[in-house]
Amino acid sequence: MTGTPSPAAVLDRAGLALTGGGRRWHRPLVALGIFGGLVAVVSLAAMPFDDRTILGDSVWSKPFKFGFAFFAYAFSLAWLLSHMTRLRRTGWVVGTVFAVVSIVDFGVVVAAAAAGTYSHFNNADTLLNQIVQVAFNFVPLLFLTNAAIAVLVLFQRIGDRAVTAVIRWGLLLSSLGMFAAFFILAVQGENERTRTDANGDTVVLTGGHGVGDPDGNGMFLTGWSTTGGDMRVSHFIGLHGIQVLIGLAMLLTLLAAGRPWLRDDRVRAAIVRWSALGYLGVFATAVWQAVRGQAFTAPDAASLAAYAGSVLLAAAGIAITVARARGAVAAEAEPVTPVAAGPAPRTRR
Predict the structure, then answer these.
(1) Is the pTM of the predicted complex or chain greater than 0.90?
(2) CA–CA separation, 142 vs 162, rounded Å?
(3) Tens digit of pLDDT for each residue in 6-18?
(4) Which helix H or strand E contains 195, and what residues bound it?
């Protein structure tokens, strides 16, 4: 008699196992993820002991946010590349370029924070800032390499249908999230101004992440603006969409062990797609809200309606999918009523 499979076995069959199958994770991306996690932990621990601030936030706030982002995303890509079935060597090269550029980008952000000065939008002629700005010139490679990975997996199946849907939609969302970071510069003009860094030095800044208030901040830990639009919100939502979808796929796969209507990977894939579509709507609404100079914490009626519409669309699609799947399972489980046999025909002698 076959027992209920363990959670690890269920995830492995779906293609969601974190390890297994002899696959080796992409080591440069794993190193990037470990580095990001360590920086996030150290930065969070340093905040209570280092009272230096930039624009009202701890100098360690930005390294913490970058560390968390690279920790989550680097491990997601390392897992993904280890499960590729074709063009694995090409994927490894592209992933390595992503890891190297990320380390450089991330490293200069940490260096500027430790020095108590600005990294982004800084026009100072100091040696440190010149190094920082040169390093930022390579940031577009992050978008290009991420888009290249998305193209590589577009025409191959990784795991079951649900996992494949996670990867395709997740990489689309992350690519849009990265593009939102570049879009920041296009929505708010130059906004040249002078500000004081944590050392009391006057710094000329050009550009900004805010719309309406280029240096807007206020939200705890994230630093997102409460005084105007902030493109960092949509950047965060899009970038981490793949982690949200991976978590959803894992949950659905585990629930499928006790729910027959979820065991068909086509059903789980449909739920993932509807969820991703709703998530895409939330991302688009966050962009729209920001470009109108509206704080994420103070949405107007139009923004609230757009957020609600995105959620309701996903909920309706999921409800229809679940209802159909349950109906199909119930139909298969209905007993077949045998046809009553008639009288035996007479035979002539």
Answers:
(1) no
(2) 26
(3) 666 666 666 665 5
(4) strand 193-196
